[in-house]
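Extended Data, panel c. Modelled sequence:
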Amino acid sequence: MPAAATAPSSAADQAAPPLLQVDRLTVRFGPHEVLRDIAIDVDAGETLVILGESGCGKTVLLKSMIGLVRPSGGDVRFDGRSLGRLGDRQLAHLRTRYGFVFQGAALFDSASIADNIAFPLREHTRLSEGEIRPIVESLVDEVGLPRSALAKKPVEVSGGMRKRAGLARALALDPQLILYDEPTTGLDPIMSDVINELILRVRRRPGVTSVVVTHDMHTARKVADRIVMLYPVARLRPDEPQIVFDGTPDRLASSRDPRVRQFVEGRAGGRLDELREEQGLAAAGGRDDGDDTEDSR
């Protein structure tokens, strides 16, 4: 008998496309170029860590991934849809599939912890208050908050508790993609590692993809499947790529790139003199790029 013909491979047999695609992204604020020609694919289920010193554009990249910053060039696609081609209502609807953990938690000061966590459920679902309450309680249990914190205002709890409340709120709509902006900044080493453990716990949720922006090497080594390191555009030649590393944590540890080594080892080198020169140029140009604002990260 003749051999059976080989069945054509189905779409399910082929590699799934990336969940998030950053395609030659460039962002400028006036004449100041923050991101240059960034290309990153993030696969579903992956935990990507974006490293780099202050001022290299990490937070701007994160905000571009959710459409909060519009590109000057290039594109960002989520699940195949270009964020730049979506209207405000379409973009707002797409963002319900994201969770965003802000650096300062970004909780509403006048609302209780419970109301902060419930906010996305009230805004984007038709659940009753009776249905929302057990979800909120389950979320605070998941992030390790005591239920006694639910009635308190953000100012009445510690920084670590505010971070965990922010994470609980980000999880409320069961997002596909969670973005963390400097999740351990301002925390002591023990609480920082609590947050790292929570990031690892969250990534075990079915179908969750994570992007973590940080300059904390302990966080990067502990939670990353893959690490991308950015370098400040202002210190690059016009022909140099802004991504100076893209690989696993093990490969990062063995990188011989002097820029990567300096960051990983935490060495100032000649950076103090460079900072003085940059401040002098900024003052001469009437610009202050020295403060660590969100738009400069």
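The first strand starts at residue 20 and ends at 29. This feature is highlighted in the accompanying rendering.
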